[in-house]
């Protein structure tokens, strides 16, 4: 084989190699390159709720809206409150991309005084595994 023939074969093999290496980039299911990462992304409408002044025994429920802005299902793995006077309720099914759900936080308003409580929401969001929510306010008795 002549040097010219070997060079032509080498160029052909090099071109095939470059094309073969680039094909996986276009193997996306929708046929285009996606710049959006393929993981869950938790986003709350607010991170704090102020009850203001409420009467002792009055219903005290804060609602936090959670949206999955990612491209994979979002799972709320657990919600831990700073004390037993605060309870969180949420749908434990995975939240599909772009879907919204509510996290309802109930506070026992039979305890007179300032409200300064926090909750830690643990998710499968790779960027922020734990998100802190806070509730504040003041519970007053009828005599005040």
Radius of gyration, in Å, reads: 27 Å
| Named CATH architecture of the largest domain | Sandwich
Instruction: Provide the spatial order of strands within the biggest beta sheet.
Output: 1-3-6-5
- The end-to-end distance, rounded to whole angstroms, is 103 Å
Q: In terms of structural class, how would the helical and strand content be classed?
A: mainly beta
Low-confidence stretches: none
- Which sheet architecture does the biggest sheet show? 4 strands, antiparallel
The total tally of domains equals 2
Number of helices: 1
CATH topology of the largest domain: Immunoglobulin-like
Structural summary, described in words:
By secondary structure, the protein is mainly β. It has two domains: 1-34; 42-140, Immunoglobulin-like. It is built from one helix and eight strands, in the order H-E-E-E-E-E-E-E-E. The chain has one helix at residues 3-22; strands spanning 42-44, 48-55, 61-68, 76-81, 86-90, 100-107, 113-123, 130-140. The strands form two sheets. It has a four-stranded antiparallel β-sheet with strand order 1-3-6-5, with no helix packed on it. Strands 2-8-7-4 form a four-stranded mixed β-sheet, with no helix packed on it. Strand 7 (113-123) and strand 8 (130-140) form a beta hairpin. The protein is rod-shaped, with a radius of gyration of 27 Å. It starts with a helix and ends with a strand.
